[in-house]
Amino acid sequence: MADDDNNDPFSEPGDIDRTVIRPTPGRRPPGGGGPGGGPGGGQGRAAPPPRQPAPPPPPPAAARGPSPFEEPEPADAPARPSPGGARAEPGRGEGGRATAGGGATAAPVGDIAESLAERSRHNPIVAAAAPLLSLIARLRLGGTHRDPDALRDRVMDEFESFNRRLKTTDVPEDQHRTAHYVLSATMDDVVLNTPWGSGSIWAREGMTVCFHGEAYGGKRFFNLLKRMSDNPGRNGRVLELIYLCLSLGFEGEMRVLDRGRSEHRRTRDGLYRLLADIRGELPEDLSPHWRGVTAGHRPVSSLIPVWVIVSATAVALVLLYLGFAWWLNSDSDDLYAAFAGLPPTGAIVIEQVTPPPPPPPEPPPEVETQVERVRGFLEPEIAEGLVNVLENAQAITIRLRARGMFESASATVSERFSEVIRRVGLALNDEPGTVVVEGHTDSLPIRTVRFPSNFDLSLARAEAVRDQLKPLLTDPSRLTVEGKAATEPIADNGTPEGREANRRTDIILIKQGT
């Protein structure tokens, strides 16, 4: 891994530990993670599946010479242990596993640059931010730092390099600014929550103060996340950077909330699902250890000979048959004797008596139906051709002719049809049931300020008819309106006559019990 050390501008001489945020949450790592194979897989030991979706770590930076971010080791500094050593370093738990206080566990199981090499080829923002993301991961797990002021100066230089690298890509300016801000806020949030950060110059002159003129970036960070999420297709690359920052330790204002950690996890999980929807990247396996043990099939015939199974089955069937036959024959003689003594012994004659015919039914009383009452009341209007009354199994429809009822592109009822609507309201007042007023138009489009579409015009006309019916009904709550536009034509919209027939207002009385 010596070559990889040169790719990380924040590496330190002799540093062999890396931090990896695995990009395959809930899945077995490539090569298997079970017994006997895969990274970290010892004999008879399987790594537990992560409960939290983890982001891919930052991509590698371009290879270069000695890093300006390296911190020289003191001459008397103790040598770092090998990966298999037993000595624990500050910020590490049992077995050398690095832990972040209050956060998720990250294991030094590979190079952070290697794990995101593939992702950086598709996201220039993450590629440009690779050195800063690597430093954020290192600072979050580190215990102390000998020269915070010098580190701050080098970080500011790296932010300038980040700007220069992004300007050579196709990233829009607004995404460039957002990416710079979230990186600044994340760097400040992680540093100020280290043992040495709160007492250093960083507390007064952090990245957000120097570059963006604000002392606290937690609130605006989540506002930017919400704004970027409104258009995930365009802002997917920035959202991926924000997801990495959340996973590498940014908490902001959630750090001091009562349920901040669960809210932080919920926010990060939602962003993870949003990114998965954009790319169509879904986990292949629901469990990292779902595969069974590979074992050869041993058929039953290899354990018991076939002739033994056939012989035992034949003997069982014979014994079963003999048992049923004996049981039936033991009681059959008594049953036959009982049947023989049952009366009658002679022929049976059935005497049939023809009953008198029933009296004819009384004629049903004549009852006037709802549709007959409505048609009778509106007979003058029907004869004049102003309305038409239709009926089906569920409803009675009173259809008002559109000609003369409304002006073109208007929803005001003419005075002549106001009298017709009054007559319809009187006819419906005594009839039970819900009343639906439907407005219909032809298929010719309309584009006015008041009525941008035929749907708005049809709905406005239906509401105008409803407003005239309300005072005439004892229970106005029976009335509802619907705008149908040209969705339910009754004639061909290709002819003037058909379009005139389609421009109508239907007053529908829903029959009770339907």
Automatic annotation (TrEMBL):
<feature type="domain" description="OmpA-like">
    <location>
        <begin position="393"/>
        <end position="513"/>
    </location>
</feature>
<feature type="region of interest" description="Disordered">
    <location>
        <begin position="1"/>
        <end position="106"/>
    </location>
</feature>
<feature type="compositionally biased region" description="Pro residues">
    <location>
        <begin position="47"/>
        <end position="61"/>
    </location>
</feature>
<dbReference type="Pfam" id="PF00691">
    <property type="entry name" value="OmpA"/>
</dbReference>
<dbReference type="InterPro" id="IPR038522">
    <property type="entry name" value="T4/T6SS_DotU_sf"/>
</dbReference>
<protein>
    <submittedName>
        <fullName>Type VI secretion system protein ImpK</fullName>
    </submittedName>
</protein>
<keyword id="KW-0472">Membrane</keyword>
<feature type="compositionally biased region" description="Low complexity">
    <location>
        <begin position="76"/>
        <end position="88"/>
    </location>
</feature>
<dbReference type="InterPro" id="IPR006665">
    <property type="entry name" value="OmpA-like"/>
</dbReference>
<dbReference type="InterPro" id="IPR017732">
    <property type="entry name" value="T4/T6SS_DotU"/>
</dbReference>
<dbReference type="InterPro" id="IPR036737">
    <property type="entry name" value="OmpA-like_sf"/>
</dbReference>
<dbReference type="GO" id="GO:0016020">
    <property type="term" value="C:membrane"/>
</dbReference>
<dbReference type="InterPro" id="IPR017733">
    <property type="entry name" value="OmpA-like_dom_proteobacteria"/>
</dbReference>
<keyword id="KW-1133">Transmembrane helix</keyword>
<dbReference type="Pfam" id="PF09850">
    <property type="entry name" value="DotU"/>
</dbReference>
<keyword id="KW-0812">Transmembrane</keyword>
<feature type="transmembrane region" description="Helical">
    <location>
        <begin position="304"/>
        <end position="328"/>
    </location>
</feature>
<feature type="region of interest" description="Disordered">
    <location>
        <begin position="483"/>
        <end position="505"/>
    </location>
</feature>
<feature type="compositionally biased region" description="Gly residues">
    <location>
        <begin position="29"/>
        <end position="44"/>
    </location>
</feature>
